[in-house]
Write a structure and sequence with these properties.
The complex is a heterodimer of chains A (about 250) and B (about 500).
Chain A: E1 2-11, E2 14-24, E3 29-33, H1 40-47, E4 55-60, E5 63-65, H2 74-83, E6 84-87, H3 99-109, H4 115-128, H5 144-156, E7 162-166, H6 174-189, E8 193-197, H7 201-207, E9 210-215, E10 218-223, H8 225-230, H9 235-248
Parallel strand pairs in A: 3-8, 3-9, 6-7, 7-8
Antiparallel strand pairs in A: 1-2, 1-4, 4-5, 9-10
Helix pairs in contact in A: 3-4, 3-5, 4-5, 5-6
Chain B: H1 2-25, H2 30-37, E1 39-44, E2 54-56, E3 59-64, H3 66-78, E4 81-86, H4 92-98, E5 103-104, H5 112-117, E6 119-120, E7 125-134, E8 149-153, H6 157-164, E9 168-172, H7 177-183, E10 189-193, H8 194-201, E11 207-209, E12 215-219, E13 222-223, H9 228-243, H10 246-253, H11 281-318, H12 321-336, H13 339-349, H14 358-384, H15 387-395, H16 400-430, H17 442-452, H18 457-488
Parallel strand pairs in B: 1-4, 1-5, 8-9, 8-10
Antiparallel strand pairs in B: 2-3, 5-13, 6-13, 7-10, 7-11, 7-12
Helix pairs in contact in B: 1-4, 1-16, 1-18, 3-9, 3-10, 11-12, 11-14, 11-16, 11-17, 11-18, 12-14, 13-14, 14-16, 15-16, 16-18, 17-18
Classes of the chains: A alpha/beta (about 250), B alpha/beta (about 500).
């Protein structure tokens, strides 16, 4: 489903990603962890080309990404973004649209779905994330957790093959995280291919099929949760998980 | 932008109040004061140009003209020196009443309105009202022009005559413009003094001045009501100049001597023109019409400014180097030059190539100008939208046009609504500038009414009242929108 080959990206002199190579099979759920500034979010954003990169290739959901596609290969990018859904740390709902309008906007405009059909599907998605009764609410009338669930439904409305989550619960109060994590867990159980950048230990340990530890632009560990979380090999991973345990308990 | 116009309005009202009180108080000691200081200060507008009072081309710090020669001679006979005080022509009489200078000498016609307000000297020039028409047109008299459009200047005897004649009067601010519009076919005739007609109109290609005088009148010197002693001294000086031929010599020097001037001996009495009117139902209706013009004009101009602004802002924020540069040039050009100039270029400058009607030119001029201001408002609003909105739109597969149309512009417009309301109120008041291209809106109506009613106070207050009535609901609308937006903006706070 995803094949990353020698992906590199720099910001001026600073190396952000350095020769990253990795594969993800259909139905896998990858927890992407590591110290902040290590390149987790950048890697995720490169996978749907929100960030262009300097070298390497990404094959994802049947689309091949190369450096220098931005602004040129619009048709490829459109296909890519229909096949890859993204959920942001800050939700990024459209504040001038209601929950259901947020969800139906892209299916109507990008995929040409009729309004009635888009709304019907959107309502089903809202029900799936537990917000069937809030279809007409504007984002400012929803709690953070509710907004993030609408954002997930919005991404799912494009019927993607891959979902990318960029720290989906970091901006939420603890009591709201569980609702959101529950939705993500359900998706994993349903066989969706997902990459989730997260600091949630429980998620990495209990839900993910694999865990990547990213530091200084490379994947330093890649293995099952049991291997990586319980018995990390690298000093970076050991230190990272130790600190995470201290702060969560 | 609004502030200068608003200030001007306040100034007019203040001036009216000052004029009233000073005029009534007037100590009457001007003649003694002139003798004590050895100087007679007379008000004139040098922008009125040749041959009245104008800057000497050889030495622009120095004024020449037939009125300069006459006043020098009058002062010499009074045993003092004469000095010009420069004032805008339409403010000369109010400024005289305020006591800014001693007398007014600047093509001041002997009209009934002025007789009511100030003392007028004996005449120093007999003018004729000349009718100019396009060469080959059938009009030979004012009667032929009934129901047609005829141009003139405000506060003139010609204006009074035209109103009595049942023609559609078109008022101009400068004396070249009516002849330009006549040549361009926008009006059918121009009625003005022979000096102005000969200077600005009769020689223009395609225009002929009809040989017969429509009416005659005289130029006189204006003196404060409280100064009959000064009037007597000036009258005596002018009488002596006529008797010994000095006035004739001066007029001949300026090629203004003609058989009509024989009437200078006989005191020419002008047909009393329009009598003082009160602020009656008729005036209310005229003001109401003008307010409707102001409102509709402003709405139409703003309806043009919004799409122009959106286009420019989009070009500036998202365009390539060429469209970014083009938008910048447009904005700097329209923001950096006066609206008045832009209106002139559109209405008079373009006339030889494409003749816009005054209302069309007004809407186009104000709309294009305000488009430049709106562009900056929308640009600011577009830049204020969090980056995450663009990223979310991209991640959903929306291309640049769809993101702009469905995600960014709707949000930008909401952010821009309070400043837009502000700009509309400002436009409402700036619309007074279009009187310079003959549209009669509220401010112009006020200046016309001020002549009829013999004072600025009541028309000024009526005008201010109408502007307030038009703009207050908008201010209320702006307040409500701001409140709503403050609420909506919370989720943006990142």
């Amino acid at each position: 489903m995803i094949a990353v080959r020698t992906l590199s990206k720099r910001h001026g002199d600073r190396v952000v990603l350095e020769g990253v190579s990795a594969d993800v099979a259909r139905g896998e759920t990858i927890a992407v962890v590591g110290p902040s500034g290590g390149g987790k979010s950048t890697l995720l954003r490169c996978l749907n080309y929100l960030e262009p990169f300097d070298a390497g290739t990404v094959e994802i959901a049947g689309v091949t990404l190369r450096p220098g596609m931005d602004g040129r290969d619009r048709e490829t990018l459109r296909k890519l973004r229909c096949a890859v859904g993204m959920v942001f740390q800050q939700f990024n709902l459209f504040p001038h649209l209601t929950a259901i309008e947020n969800i139906t906007l892209a299916p109507r405009l990008v995929r040409g779905l009729a309004a009635v059909e888009a709304t019907r599907r959107g309502a089903a998605l809202l029900e799936r994330v537990g917000l069937a009764d809030r279809a007409g609410a504007y984002p400012h009338e929803l709690s953070g957790g509710q907004q993030q669930r609408v954002a997930i439904a919005r991404a799912l409305a494009q019927e993607p093959e891959v979902m990318l989550f960029d720290e989906p619960t970091s901006a939420l109060d603890p009591e709201m995280r569980d609702d959101v994590m529950e939705v993500i867990r359900d998706l994993a159980g349903g066989g969706m291919t997902m990459l989730v950048v997260t600091h949630e230990m429980h998620f990495a340990h209990d839900v993910a099929s694999r865990v990547w530890v990213i530091d200084r632009g490379t994947i330093v560990e890649d293995g099952s949760p049991q291997q990586v979380v319980d018995a990390p090999q690298s000093a970076v991973a050991r230190e990272f998980f130790a600190r995470l345990r201290r702060t969560t308990t | 932008m609004a502030r200068p116009r608003a200030l001007a309005l306040v100034a007019v009202v203040a001036l009216a109040l000052a004029g009233l009180s000073c005029g009534r108080r007037g100590h009457g000691g001007t003649w003694k004061a002139i003798q004590a200081r050895g100087e007679l200060v007379w008000g004139a507008d040098v922008s009125g140009g040749e041959p009245y009072v104008f800057e000497d081309p050889a030495d622009p710090s120095h004024y020449i003209g037939f009125e300069v020669d006459i006043m020098d001679a009058v002062a010499r006979r009074l045993g003092v020196k004469a000095r010009v005080a420069q004032y805008a022509w339409s403010n000369l009489v109010p400024s005289l009443e305020r006591g800014d200078f001693d007398v007014v000498t600047n093509g001041l016609e002997n009209t009934a309105e002025r007789q009511d307000r100030i003392l007028l000297s004996r005449p120093y020039y007999v003018y004729a009202e000349l009718l100019a028409v396009r060469a080959g047109s059938p009009y030979r008299s004012l009667d032929d022009l009934r129901g047609r459009r005829v141009g003139t200047l405000n506060q003139t005897y010609a204006h009074d005559l035209l109103r009595e004649a049942g023609v559609e009067v078109v008022l101009y601010e400068g004396d070249k413009e009516p002849y330009l519009d006549l040549a361009a076919g926008r009006i059918d005739a121009v009625l003005l003094d022979d000096i102005i007609a000969n200077r600005s109109g009769c020689g223009v290609a395609g225009i002929t001045c009809l040989p017969d005088d429509v009416a005659r009148g005289t130029y006189v010197i204006g003196i404060r009501k409280a100064d009959p002693a000064l009037k007597a001294a000036i009258d005596a000086a002018l009488d002596a100049m006529i008797a010994d031929g000095e006035l004739e010599r001066i007029l001949r020097t300026w090629k203004l001597w003609n058989p009509r001037q024989a009437d200078l001996d006989v005191q020419v009495t002008q047909t009393p023109s329009v009598r003082a009117r009160s602020f009656d139902g008729n005036q209310w209706r005229l003001f109401l019409d003008a307010a409707v013009v102001t409102l509709l004009l402003s709405i139409a101009a703003f309806a043009l400014a919004v799409p122009v602004g959106l286009l420019l802002a989009t070009m500036r924020v998202y365009g390539g180097p060429v469209s970014r540069g083009a938008a910048r040039v447009y904005i700097e050009l329209f923001r950096g030059t006066p609206v008045l100039l832009q209106l002139y270029v559109l209405y008079y400058g373009l006339a030889p190539y494409y003749s816009l009607g005054p209302v069309q030119a007004a809407i186009l001029g104000l709309g294009l100008n305000y488009g430049a201001y709106e562009a900056e408002v929308y640009r600011g609003a577009l830049l204020a939208i969090p980056r995450g909105q663009t990223e979310a739109a991209k991640a959903l597969g929306l291309g640049p046009w769809l993101s702009l149309r469905h995600v960014l512009l709707p949000q930008a417009l909401r952010l821009a609504l309070p400043p837009m309301t502000n700009d509309f109120v400002s436009l409402l008041k700036d619309s007074s500038l279009v009187s310079s291209i003959t549209v009669i809106e509220l401010t112009k109506r006020m200046t016309i009414a001020a002549v009829d009613l013999r004072g600025w106070l009541v028309p000024g207050l009526a005008c201010a009242g109408f502007y307030l009535v038009l703009s207050l609901p908008l201010s209320e609308l702006a307040r409500r929108l701001e409140r709503r937006l403050a609420h909506d903006r919370r989720p943006h706070a990142l």
